[in-house]
Amino acid sequence: MANKTIKLIITRQDSPNSSPYKETFEIPYRENMNIISALMETQKNPINANGEKTTPVNWESNCLEEVCGACSMVINGVPRQACSTLVDKLGTPIYLEPMATFPVMRDLAVDRSRMFDSLKKVKAWIPIDGTHDLGPGPRMPEKKRQWAYELSKCMTCGVCLEACPNVNSKSEFIGPAPLSQVRLFNAHPTGEMNRGERLDTLMEDGGLAGCGNSQNCVQVCPKGIPLTTSIAALNRDTNIQSFKNFFGSDYAY
Ligand code: SF4
Ligand code: FES
Fold this sequence. Notes:
Bound molecules: iron/sulfur cluster, FE2/S2 (inorganic) cluster
CATH topology of the largest domain: Fumarate Reductase Iron-sulfur Protein, Chain B, domain 2
Number of helices: 8
Strand order of the largest sheet: 2-1-5-3-4
Number of domains: 2
């Protein structure tokens, strides 16, 4: 394997408002490299394939084990995590681009605030008073806990938003991940207190009506979260909620 190299063709952008451009790097191959270790080679030796000195490539990463979601980027046209994508599975050249759904900060690093703002909008949390010991929380039936656990694996990586044709700069649609989190927090015995408010938010602009049922989201989610099942369940829940609102029932089920 001596002298074997890998070609990386990276879409770069120097600042949030500058124009993107492509730069090619030829890096030394090692066995079992992931995309992060390939990118680290470009930092170690920021010389492009033309032999010109350039700036080190910028990207985000943290856990390096597909848990934090920070390293999401588009690899050979597919949105996925750079830390869990092995070079050996891709061949060469490898095309790396930032996700287009989010504003680019620099090179492959994007600003995922859009997704975190949506989580705030739908109150994706359990409202408890943390100033004193409340004792053990209410127990969930095991069957419900099992599917809720699957939804809780979301790492806000953003690839489901990237794959969704209805999430873009012209649309307010919050996208699959925040929708699925509504189902998760509504299922929690304490989170249920805000169920009506969350569902009302999903009936506003940017909510469920934005889903075009392309089903791309569920195919790209690295955690196997049943996003389309969540969206179908929320459609049913918002229908019931709109009847409750019309007939003047309160939020409690
Ligand atoms: S639902 Fe899946 S793809 Fe979407 S942000 Fe969460 S982990 Fe990523
Ligand atoms: S670095 Fe955390 S998911 Fe890749």
